[in-house]
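User: For my dataset I need records formatted as: sequence, then structure tokens, nothing else. Please produce one.
Assistant:
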Amino acid sequence: MLTSHAENSNPKEMGMHVRLYQAYSGRCHCGKIAFEIESNFPELTTCDCSICRRKNALMVKVHERRFRLLQGQDNLVEYRFHTGTARHFFAEYAGFTRFIAKE
């Protein structure tokens, strides 16, 4: 049986650890693309695609409303492979992956 907690319950009183959202900024290797995310890093995951496996990449899932592209929209190229559902965006000049959007 599932039970729900009142919205005004204090998570710490229920023995839960609360991580607050923080802003993090990043850029591609060539510096032409800049972005910012807000995350509380609930979990890091590994992608099993051939590109990420070769890089041993870790990723954090961020809702699109918590992602902001600050500069470089014109320097992004999109690549889709395998099922074509994930849109991988790369810096056009350096080829560095920075974010992936799923449809």
